[in-house]
C-alpha cells in the first residue's frame, strides 16, 4: 500500500486514518481492540485520538480513548508500526484546559502515560480557542517537545486560514517547529475548507486529515428522514441538519455512484476525499470490524472522471 507524506515531515501514513473518538464511548475496550487489530492487519498505520475523548460520555472523565489505545499497544506490540495522533487544549476539567506552555508540557506527559509510549508522532492543537495565550507561546512549547523527542511533528485542528498563516510566520521567524498538518471539518457536504484553507495547505505543503469525513454518519446512506435518526442516538443531533434538499441531493449523487461502482456510500465518500487537494488521509471511525471493512475499501476504490464530476457538483 502506497503511503503518503505528512506535510514536509518524514512521516509516511496510509491514506485512511482511524478515528479513536469511539473508543470507550460507543464501543468498549474489547470491541475497540478488535477494530484496532483489524485496522493494523489490513496494513494501515494511522490512528487519531485526543486527550479529551470521550469526556462527554456519562461517567467518563476524558482520556478513555488514549488509555484503550495504550493498552492495545502493550497487548499487540504494534506501537512502532503506528503513526499516532493525539491532541491538546480542550477542557479536561479541574482547570486542565488551554494552550499555555506550562499546560501543554503537563498535558503531553499525561497523554504519554495513558498511551503507554515515549513519543507522540503527531501532536495537534485541538482548537484555536485560548485567547489568553499567544500563538508564539504554544509553538514554543511544541518546539521544546520536538527537541526533546517526545513529539515528532505538530499540527493544528479547527484553524482559520489567517490564524494558520500567522502560526507559520511565527515558526519561520523564531525557528520553531511548524505545523505540518491541518485537521479541518471537511466532507462531501461540508466544503468550507475548499475556499481558503485548501490553496494555503497545498502551497505550504501542509498535510490535511479531515474529520467528520462521513458527516457524522450521514454519508453512509443510513439517514434519509428524521425517522432514521433513532438508528444512532449519539449522532442524531449532528445529522438532522443535513436532512434538507441539499443534503438529499448529495446523498442521491453518492448512492448513484456507489451503485455504479458496486461499493458502499461510505467507501465512495472517503475515496472522494482522498482525491481532494492537500488531503493526505481522511479520518473515519468504526464501531465494528464489519463497519471498518467498508472504510478500508475506500483505499483501493478508484473513482472515474464521471463519478468525480457527479460528486463534485452534488451540493450545487
Topology (elements, then pairings):
Layout: E1 4-5, E2 12-13, E3 17-19, H1 29-41, E4 46-48, H2 64-76, E5 83-88, H3 101-115, E6 120-125, H4 135-148, E7 151-157, H5 161-174, E8 179-183, H6 197-204, E9 207-208, H7 236-239, H8 245-261, H9 265-274, E10 283-284, H10 289-296, H11 305-312
Parallel strand pairs: 3-4, 3-10, 4-5, 5-6, 6-7, 7-8, 8-9
Antiparallel strand pairs: 1-2
Helix pairs in contact: 1-2, 2-3, 3-4, 8-9
Could you please describe the fold and organization of this structure?
39% of the residues lie in helices and 12% in strands. The protein has 316 residues and is α/β, with parallel strands linked by helices. An eight-stranded parallel β-sheet has the order 9-8-7-6-5-4-3-10, covered by helices on one side. A two-stranded antiparallel sheet has the order 1-2.
Q: Note the total helix count.
A: 11
Instruction: Kindly report the oligomeric state of this protein.
Output: single chain
Helical amount among residues, as a percent range? 25-40%
Total strands: 10
Poorly predicted parts:
none
> Which value, in Å, is the CA radius of gyration?
19 Å
Mean pLDDT: 96
Query: In terms of structural class, how would the helical and strand content be classed?
Result: alpha/beta
The dominant shape is: globular
Main pleated sheet: 8 strands, parallel
Content of β-strand = 5-15%
How are strands sequenced across the largest beta sheet?
9-8-7-6-5-4-3-10
What is the end-to-end distance?
34 Å
Helices and strands, in order, run as: EEEHEHEHEHEHEHEHHHEHH
Amino acid at each position: 500500500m502506497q503511503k503518503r507524506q505528512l506535510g514536509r515531515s518524514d512521516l509516511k501514513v496510509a491514506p485512511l486514518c482511524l478515528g479513536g473518538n469511539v473508543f470507550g464511548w460507543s464501543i468498549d475496550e474489547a470491541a475497540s481492540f478488535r477494530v484496532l487489530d483489524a485496522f493494523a492487519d489490513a496494513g494501515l498505520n494511522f490512528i487519531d485520538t485526543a486527550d479529551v475523548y470521550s469526556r462527554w460520555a456519562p461517567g467518563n472523565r476524558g482520556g478513555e480513548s488514549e488509555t484503550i489505545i495504550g493498552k492495545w499497544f502493550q497487548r499487540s506490540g504494534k506501537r512502532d508500526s503506528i503513526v499516532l495522533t493525539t491532541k491538546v487544549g480542550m477542557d479536561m476539567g479541574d482547570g486542565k484546559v488551554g494552550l499555555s506552555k506550562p499546560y501543554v508540557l503537563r498535558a503531553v506527559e499525561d497523554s504519554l502515560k495513558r498511551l503507554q509510549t515515549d513519543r507522540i508522532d503527531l501532536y495537534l492543537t485541538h482548537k484555536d480557542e485560548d485567547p489568553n495565550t499567544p500563538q508564539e507561546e504554544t509553538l514554543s512549547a511544541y518546539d521544546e517537545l520536538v527537541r526533546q523527542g517526545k513529539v515528532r511533528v505538530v499540527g493544528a485542528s479547527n484553524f482559520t486560514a489567517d490564524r494558520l498563516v500567522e502560526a507559520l510566520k511565527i515558526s519561520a521567524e523564531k525557528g520553531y517547529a511548524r505545523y505540518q498538518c491541518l485537521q479541518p471539518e471537511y466532507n462531501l457536504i461540508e466544503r468550507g475548507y475548499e475556499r481558503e484553507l485548501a490553496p494555503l495547505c497545498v502551497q505550504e505543503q501542509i498535510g490535511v486529515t479531515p474529520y467528520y469525513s462521513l458527516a457524522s454518519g450521514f454519508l453512509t446512506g443510513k439517514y434519509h428522514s428524521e425517522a432514521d435518526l433513532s438508528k444512532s442516538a449519539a449522532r442524531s443531533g449532528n445529522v438532522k441538519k443535513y436532512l434538507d434538499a441539499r443534503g438529499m441531493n448529495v446523498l442521491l449523487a453518492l448512492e448513484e455512484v456507489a451503485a455504479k461502482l458496486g461499493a458502499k456510500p461510505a467507501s465512495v465518500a472517503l475515496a472522494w476525499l482522498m482525491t481532494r487537494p492537500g488531503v493526505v488521509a481522511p479520518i473515519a471511525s468504526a464501531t465494528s470490524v464489519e463497519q471498518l471493512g467498508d472504510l478500508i475499501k475506500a483505499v483501493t476504490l478508484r473513482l472515474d472522471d464521471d463519478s468525480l464530476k457527479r460528486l463534485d457538483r452534488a451540493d450545487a
